[in-house]
Prior knowledge:
alpha+beta, five-stranded antiparallel beta sheet, single chain
Amino acid sequence: xxxxxxxxxxxxxxxxxxxxxxxxxxxxxxxxxxxxxxxxxxxxxxxxxxxxxxxxxxxxxxxxxxxxxxxxxxxxxxxxxxxxxxxxxxxxxxxxxxxxxxxxxxxxxxxxxxxxxxxxxxxxxxxxxxxxxxxxxxxxxxxxxxxxxxxxxxxxxxxxxxxxxxxxxxxxxxxxxxxxxxxxxxxxxxxxxxxxxxxxxxxxxxxxxxxxxxxxxxxxxxxxxxxxxxxxxxxxxxxxxxxxxxxxxxxxxxxxxxxxxxxxxxxxxxxxxxxxxxxxxxxxxxxxxxxxxxxxxxxxxxxxxxxxxxxxxxxxxxxxxxxxxxxxxxxxxxxxxxxxxxxxxxxxxxxxxxxxxxxxxxxxxxxxxxxxxxxxxxxxxxxxxxxxxxxxxxxxxxxxxx
Length: 402
């Protein structure tokens, strides 16, 4: 991958980064869309060399060229033209190139297979190195098109029992990655540790977690003991395998016992653990079990918004800001009576882009039909639980609508 140095004054306080920011080797540091929260953060970013890939560099060049052309046509002084910098044009008007993975289904399947092989045995000698590559590839998959990633991960969580542990871990990691961009006090260097922790939070109970999904009886005493100790056991196993990232390990160790309250009042690892804990609840509520049906995405989102004291939770709020009340891949009911699948997040949490799949009479629509949820007749009135719709979605068709 070719990379090009980014002028530091492209970044603005309170605005999302228009490009994915990388180091000089091309490794992703900051996903596109991350909000620069403060002057301190802006100065920290400006103090280091940041790069963009060749596609983003071309988009920036075109935007700059367009600004210069406009200045010339408006008879700007030569001195003004010579001093034109990225801070003199509308960064939000930059159109980042449309990125596309040729086969998102195959790409995600490959990531899941790699995750399955890794999470099965955390004592592998190269566990840390392979896990670091996996989390980086997952971050790049999300950053390419977060809505596509969410659609596939959310749909998989609501429909598939096979290899549940991996599907669940990938969804939690994706939700955490997106939500972390809405926690302004966090450093960008925390995100790799966050993704690693989310992927490995249940590494000490991989087989048990897959078993419990299809088990009709409640957990036995032996299973309950493993559940109760899996966070500490997982962190210990990874330490024994050579993992030395205490932010990662601490987040795994405390992802079930971090208390409610302001994130900034918690130690760093506990802050990550709290977000993982809330994302874990969200993903679990989306997924069916032999002993219970899945909830709608709306009900799952509401479950994480309020903390144990029934007060708004900071981590839960970040999740809803990131993915909306109706994330891609979830089912919704429209005022018209149709049932639709969410395709993309909207400008507001309540107005996703959707495609109708069931008509008001309850019959399947032959081809998914896009609807504008900003219009009264098609506005979303609530979520729909997966078991309420007996239709198997054609993901290839849905991806073509995105």
